[in-house]
Amino acid sequence: MSLTLYFHPLSSYCQKVLIALYENATPFTPQQVDLGNPEELAALKRLWPFGRFPVLRDGDRVVAESSIIIEYLQQHHPGATRFIPADAERALATRMADRFYDLYVMDPMQRIVGDRLRPDGAKDPLGVEQARARLATAYDMIEADMSTRQWAIGETFTMADCAAAPSLYYANLVQPFGDKHRQVAAYFDRLMARPSFKRAVDEAEPYRKFFPRG
User: Fold this and answer.
1) Residue 74 has pLDDT above 90, yes or no
2) Boundaries of CATH 3.40.30.10 in the chain?
3) CB 196 within 8 A of CB 2
4) Nearest-5° Cα angle at 151, 108 to 85
5) What distance in Å separates the CA atoms of residue 181 and residue 171, rounded to the nearest whole number?
6) Which side of the chain, N or C, has fewer Cβ within a 10 Å radius?
7) Are the C-beta atoms of residues 148 and 186 closer than 8 Å to each other?
8) Do residues 96 and 106 touch, judged by C-beta distance below 8 A?
9) Region 131-138: what's the mean pLDDT?
10) What pLDDT is recorded for position 150?
């Protein structure tokens, strides 16, 4: 088995890649990494000096960053689910939606969560306020889009949905969708019903207690 994924089940970006792997039943060796363990962190840094996951190793080749890993899987280990459409315009829309969920849902969610981990006296209330405003804007945009779509860019599941699933899962924990965003909630329900994402969520359950809920 040539593919090895260095990851942690609780990580949103790792879940994004796991969804892609599970969608196509792609064989791989899971290598869980505890960043708090100096030896495991050092081993990860030998592959990717920034010490961040997910990282995919395919033989002698190392691929980092979740979106690039998913594109790599499609190119070198394709399956029934095509994550980037063949049509150039739809491919561009997929990449745009993927960046949207990473930058405007995942990132502000992580800023809110990260602030909860800061010690007293080092909190950043302004940063949290700005992150919550960005999330609210993102929810409004998703609400409008999902009034006419099944998945992130239309009727086909793509890489953008791999990004949307974990980002919306954690975002809803820190800033619930509420009655104003019923289409967002309905889309999230469809994502939760997807077997690939349900599996990733279930595998993270033993570690859920470590998520700082505020």
Assistant:
1) yes
2) 3-76
3) no
4) 100
5) 13
6) N
7) no
8) no
9) 97
10) 96
Q: What is the DSSP string of 3-69?
A: EEEEE-TT-HHHHHHHHHHHHTT---EEEE--TTSHHHHHHHHHHSTT--S-EEEETTEEEESHHHH
Q: Counting beta carbons within 10 angstroms of the beta carbon of residue 34, is it exposed (0 to 12), middle (13 to 18) or buried (19 or more)?
A: exposed
Return the amino acid letter for 77: H
Question: What are the beta bridge partners of residue 4?
Answer: 29, 57
Q: Which ranges in the chain are annotated with CATH 1.20.1050.10?
A: 88-194
DSSP assignment of 74-127: HHHS--SS-SS-SSHHHHHHHHHHHHHHIIIIIHHHHHHHHHHTSPTT---HHH
The pTM for the full model equals 0.94
Average pLDDT of the chain?
A: 95
Tell which CATH classification among 1.25.10.10, 1.20.1050.10, 1.10.287.3240, 3.40.720.10 matches the domain 88-194.
1.20.1050.10
Are 11 and 162 within 8 A, CB to CB? no
Architecture of domain 3-76: 3-Layer(aba) Sandwich (3.40)
User: Distance (Å, rounded) from C-alpha 17 to C-alpha 76?
Assistant: 15
Average pLDDT for 10-25: 97
Region 39-54 average pLDDT: 96
pLDDT of residue 1: 52
Collapsing DSSP states into helix, strand and coil, what is residue 213?
A: coil
